[in-house]
Amino acid sequence: MTDARLAQLAADLPALRLLTDPSDLEHYGRDWTRRWTPAPLAIALPASVAEVQAVVRWANGHGVAIVPSGGRTGLSGGAVAAHGELVVSLERMNQLLAFDAVDRTLTVQAGMPLQAVQDAAKTHGLIYPVDFAARGSCSIGGNIATNAGGIRVIRYGNTREWIAGLTVVTGTGEVLELNRGLIKNSSGYDLRQLMIASEGTLGIVVEATLKLTDPPPPSQVMLLALPDMDALMRVFALFRARLALQAFEFFTDVALRHVLAHGAQRAIDGEHPYYVVTEFDAADERAQDAALAAFEEGVEQGWISDGVIAQSDAQATALWRLREGITEAVAPRRPYKNDVSVRISAVPDFLHAMQELLTREYPQFEVVWFGHIGDGNLHINVLTPPGMDDAAFIAQCEHVTKHLAVTLRQFGGSISAEHGIGLVKRAYLESTRSAAEIALMRGVRQVFDPNGILNPGKLFIPPPSPDGRH
């Protein structure tokens, strides 16, 4: 605490937990991107809204930038602190504050892990339906900051659909209570929705009121092997017409090889280029028969090469691991990631355009791709070759991403489907947003954070300094 600014913060807030140990700075100063060397000033771990408010006011007074921090499972550099920022981690603010049985809502602190939220909802016979593989480590605040989607968007939508109210500390230290859990509220701008997906650049989410819903009926999980890319959308259309889908996820043979090497068990014999894990309502014999009939029709049409249906919860978990284990399995290869989306109707043409681009531009690299076909979201992971310098690898990947951004613009897509823009994708924001939109977004940010202390450098490329550098 030799820094006079930190000494003042500690004196003003004696109960605030502050960390300055080098190992803590490294741990809290980065997210899953691992591209930037973490170099925060310190780590603040507030335990109350009042402490967050006081930290923001201190930061304004001392000209210190703040990086809000949740579970740091992001993949776009949104939680990176590499330039002397104060990381404000909400991990101590992880409590369930209230359950309302009539409104069917949970009010929680922003640092509560997604898994804990899901478990709390289940104790009341309800569910919080947003779900993805990082559920055990990601936080609700981070989910809100990026409008996280996941594996069940096809059924339940993104995080945005499940936020009934927010408490936010703005860049000036003002506390806003947004929407207050109302279902109908036509009293002007919905600032709650503005905060969602703002990546901590407008305010720090400190509390959230979450909508809950009934558990889905009993379901079944099926793994399908497909002969080619075109079969993906044909099988999706067939299953969506016949079944009540909860999820429809695809991955390639390359992805499967990595997951199997990471400890998962093979479920279908032989080699197939594409796979689908799908989950659907199967509450009665009629629904189960419909699933079997859809499968048989897919086989007859030549769209499905093989398949297996889970006969137990354990088998269902094993099938899902083949999809959910991909990110962890390829992590040691330090993948360069792109997370893109297009309209569902544009997926077939975009898949072909993307495959052509990847084959042409990445012939020397191993590419793992998978995605949420049912909502038009595709994940591309380019794996770092053994022994290759990270800087050279990233430079080559950035070159291809420029082509990808152009392709996305042609298809009316987005360079970020659910991971945010952060540092990684800010150069490509204009492929998704018009110049007029970006100008308005910058203006909104100026209103909520006039001194620019909240997550600076994220989402937008900063304006050049007098010496011409960003």
From TrEMBL:
PROSITE patterns xrefs: FAD_PCMH
Pfam families: FAD-oxidase_C (PF02913), FAD_binding_4 (PF01565)
PANTHER family, per database record: D-2-HYDROXYGLUTARATE DEHYDROGENASE, MITOCHONDRIAL
All copies of domain FAD-binding PCMH-type, residue ranges: 36-215
SUPFAM superfamilies from the UniProt entry: FAD-binding/transporter-associated domain-like (SSF56176), FAD-linked oxidases, C-terminal domain (SSF55103)
Record family assignment: Belongs to the FAD-binding oxidoreductase/transferase type 4 family.
Record's keyword terms, sorted: FAD, Flavoprotein, Oxidoreductase
Flavoprotein in keyword set: yes
Cofactor: FAD
Lineage: Bacteria, Pseudomonadati, Pseudomonadota, Gammaproteobacteria, Lysobacterales
Protein name: FAD-binding oxidoreductase
InterPro entries cross-referenced by the UniProt entry: FAD-bd_oxidored_4_C (IPR004113), FAD-bd_PCMH (IPR016166), FAD-bd_PCMH-like_sf (IPR036318), FAD-bd_PCMH_sub2 (IPR016169), FAD-linked_Oxase-like_C (IPR016164), FAD-oxidored/transferase_4 (IPR051264), Oxid_FAD_bind_N (IPR006094), Vanillyl_alc_oxidase_C-sub2 (IPR016171)
